[in-house]
Amino acid sequence: MTMSLGRVLRTGTVAVLALLWLVPTWLLVVNALVPAESYSGSPHWLPTEFGLFDNMSQAWDKANLGPAFGNSLLYSVVSALAAAVLAAGAAFATIIMPVKHRALWFWVIYSGTLLPLQVFIRPLFLSYAESSLYDTQFGLVLIYTAIAIPFAFFVMRNYALTLPKEVVEAARLDGASWWRLFWQIHVPLTRSAMIAVFVFQFVAVWNDLMFGITLTTSRNIRPVMAALADLQGNYSNVGPPVVLAGALLVSLPTLVLFFSAQRFFISSLRIHR
Amino acid sequence: MAPSVLLVAVFLLAPFVWTIHRSFFADTRTSPFSWFDNYTRFASDPALTRSIQNTLLWVVGTVVLPFVLGLAIACMTDATRFSRLARLCVVLPYALSGSAVAVVWNFMLTTDGAVNQVLTSVGLDSFAQGWLLTWPGNTLVMILANAWQATGVAVILFLVGLQSIPPETLEAGSLDGAGSWQQFRHIVLPQLRPVSIIVIGMSLVNGLKSFDLIWVLTQGGPGRATETLAVSMYNETFLELRPGAGAAIAVVLTVIVLAASWLYLRRQLDVKGE
């Protein structure tokens, strides 16, 4: 009897928590559906008409989401890919190759994850302004790659630690170069960790706001979150349904990626000892 | 290795050193050396004092809420039948960006937003208010918004931890007559220690650095009431055009983040790579 009472309480608590959690998500979706013209000024709780695509296209036009989407896609894919490959190389070098001062190199690269982003931003802003990297796609790709490397390196290194050393030793005896070893043995073996790193950094770059608003001014350079923040700044003009539809729209890529790769990258974050 | 080291050194470490250096100079264009002036401003500027208070609130709120809620939800949904659905509700916001979360919560919290609408409709008009307008309420509701998003990842990590507990230890516990609370306290909790350290460390550092939620919701205002150190740094540097003060804030923030990271990293890291 006490067992079942406990179970009822537990189920009840879970249900209440889940409902509480669902409320903002529910409101986001329902009110993004309300046609912008017929929004009365107070939040809707039940869907009545379907104006989602219309709202999305309004958000798309008013916030200039088109180029922002393209930019963020470019930044996320290129930076995450570059970070995964470069970090794999660094992990290979510090774990597999006989390099001196491993601990030093580890800390040089890893220190990047420990520092808050705020500490880099003004020097970058100034040097970007001087070197004409400011407000360019290349400039943003560079900084996003640099930010992504330290954590990517941490994950790749944890993974490289678990690889059998015998494979490498055997290949060395056969006379394979380090370069060949890296591309033909290390990269294929660590592929799943590299994909996990890619997904993780893709999401991080996609979600960045601070560098996006600091290192760009043009609408055709800035990333998608800067465009969303701009749309939110126009909240009273464009109306809540359009802003919410915009938020939904820019979240779709990461939502899809996150839920298709969830299991995969969580397991790679476990710390191997 | 060389490209990684080079990129990190040029884009992250060099600016870091430059910021430290800059923090000892005054805000004027000629920048005479000013010792610790930018640091003493922390004690005298009310906006910065408030910023430190807010940062402390954020740290407590972003560590305690996701930890407690994440642990509770992970434990309670580990077995029950409709748990997958319930868990999805909690994990879903984690996939949203800070900016999108801010958009959603602005919709909830504005004067004619959803929260006030609910309060009015159940007859609690007197509680309806401008949630983002008065301190400390505005900081507290933003911390709640952050917890709404951040609990998801804590749930996932705790579930990974729970699944790695061998079922035999729990069976042995119940054979010895341990109640479910005792089992939780003496068997489950100790085994979740490594995961707990990761969850706490992540939330701590993320709470200290959080920027986009506050920036999109209030830009640190009204006045400068909701600034945290991360937002203050941005404000001083790019809006108030006081780069020296901004640099000093960035350095203080870095020291705090490093100290916080150290607390959990020293348990987790084995640097030698053996």
TrEMBL record, chain A:
Pfam families for the chain: BPD_transp_1
UniProt entry tagged with the keyword Membrane: yes
Keywords tagged on the record: Cell membrane, Membrane, Transmembrane, Transmembrane helix, Transport
Transmembrane stretches, start-end: 73-96, 103-121, 141-160, 181-206, 242-266
Membrane-related topology note: Multi-pass membrane protein
One GO cellular component term: plasma membrane
SUPFAM superfamilies to which the protein is assigned, alphabetical: MetI-like
Domain ABC transmembrane type-1 residue range list: 69-261
CDD domains membership: TM_PBP2
Any GO BP annotation: transmembrane transport
Annotated InterPro entries: MetI-like, MetI-like_sf
Compartment(s): Cell membrane
Family: Belongs to the binding-protein-dependent transport system permease family.
The protein, known as: Carbohydrate ABC transporter permease
